[in-house]
Amino acid sequence: MPYLKLAGFEDVALIRRFDLRVNLISALVEQWCTVIHTFIMPCVECTITLEDVTIQLGNGEQNFTCLTLAWLRVNFKKLSSTATKHKVICAARAYIMQLIGGGVLMPNNTSNRVHLKYLPLLEDFSRAGSYSWGSIVLAILYHELCRATKHGMGHVSENWCEPNISHLPLNDRGFLWMSYSAPNIATLIPQWVHTEAHVWCINTPMLNFSTVEWNNDSRVMQKFGCRQFVPVEPQQFADVHDKTMRGKHTIDWNVEHQLYVALWNAWYEK
């Protein structure tokens, strides 16, 4: 569908669900450091980066703040071959909303609802295609990892320089960086994926409405084939890290987080 391509969701639509290794995820959560947003391994720090999100993707409140995925599926299940342009556009928006909330990009705790806050972003497909959806996905992933460690679903030692992850499988070199350079993988990656590679290893805030998470890719320069220098002190968020959208539906988050928006724009435009 041309509208999916225009909005930047053409490749995301090809993603399929797969079985998750819960034991491995739990082990990784235990090593997540909420201060520096990296997994602390015995030999190295590592993290999910914007490169990973780009290559992998190609890119519950009430009071009617959410749409159920079941409602979207029922009401936009079939599209007639004679459908008008307006109906095709509505169907494309409904499908993208399912990709966002249906366990593919940005699911909530129950994975059966998608928040209406994303719908206005799809009003203009050409504009939607210019948004950094990858950084939004990464911000949510970081936020969920921090929430998991905070609420006891994982444990990170206060002394994060001395982690204990003997139960995690590592290769004989200590750690295997997934650089996507293996011939059988590299041939599957379209060249356009690399057009925004200049933002993959920057230190910048990533925003998703109320959520602000810091991208500290300067701590994992080896992933990008660079020499690792001594990382700078991690950014501190004060009370921003715990802000939610609950009871704040009228807040303009672009204004509320204008400092972080400015920092993102400054890094992106370099």
From TrEMBL:
Domain Aminotransferase-like plant mobile: 8-58, 65-152
One Gene Ontology term from the biological process aspect of the record: meristem maintenance
Entries under InterPro entries matching the protein: AminoTfrase-like_pln_mobile, MAIN-like
Protein name: Aminotransferase-like plant mobile domain-containing protein
